[in-house]
């Protein structure tokens, strides 16, 4: 159930992020409420892990402010919601893997199209791809979970 919710969240927001470079706050609020309900009913992760996962998003939000939105505030809010679903360690892995994927694609785009290094790219599609990779590894018996 968690996977379906996250794929829906990331799919909807990835489309918005790619198309408009904005993430709708109402979507995040709806999925945050659903995530809190899952946490209450299923208690898959300890409260400290959930708070740590949300804390990863808070740290990204602070970095967004300090860096004048080199990482968007919407991306940080999305990671906060992700923390509700995945807990601390999986949220850290997701952000790390998303960042690596974005960096690789960014390097290819810079080399291929001779773009500037400060060109904006939507980040949520990389979160979606990273989550699908994590889900696949976990489904195949990997150590994520």
Looking at this protein, list some descriptive labels.
145 residues; globular; 79% helix; mainly alpha
Structure description:
The protein is mostly helical. The protein has one domain. Helices cover 79% and strands 0% of the residues. It contains five helices and no strands. The longest helix has 41 residues, at 73-113. It is globular. The mean pLDDT is 89.
The protein's oligomeric status is single chain
Q: Biggest β-sheet, characterized?
A: none
Mean pLDDT: 89
Q: Specify the structural class.
A: mainly alpha
Strand content: under 5%
Low-confidence stretches: none
* Spatial gap, N to C terminus: 14 Å
Number of helices, where a helix is a run of at least 4 consecutive DSSP H or I residues: 5
Number of strands: 0
Order of helices and strands: HHHHH
Determine Rg (CA atoms, Å): 15 Å
Name the shape in a single word: globular
Roughly what percent helix?
over 70%
Q: What is the number of independent domains?
A: 1
């Amino acid at each position: 159930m968690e996977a379906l919710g996250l794929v829906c969240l990331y799919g909807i927001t990835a489309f918005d992020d790619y198309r408009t470079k904005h993430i709708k706050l109402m979507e995040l609020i709806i999925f945050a409420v659903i995530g809190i309900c899952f946490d209450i009913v299923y208690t898959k992760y300890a409260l400290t892990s959930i708070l740590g996962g949300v804390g990863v998003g808070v740290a990204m939000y602070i970095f967004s402010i300090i860096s004048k939105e080199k990482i968007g505030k919407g991306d940080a809010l999305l990671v906060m919601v992700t923390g509700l679903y995945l807990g601390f360690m999986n949220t850290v892995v997701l952000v790390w893997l998303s960042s690596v994927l974005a960096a690789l694609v960014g390097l290819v785009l810079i080399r291929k199209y001779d773009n500037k290094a400060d060109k904006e790219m939507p980040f949520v599609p990389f979160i979606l791809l990273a989550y699908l990779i994590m889900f696949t590894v976990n489904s195949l018996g990997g150590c994520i979970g």
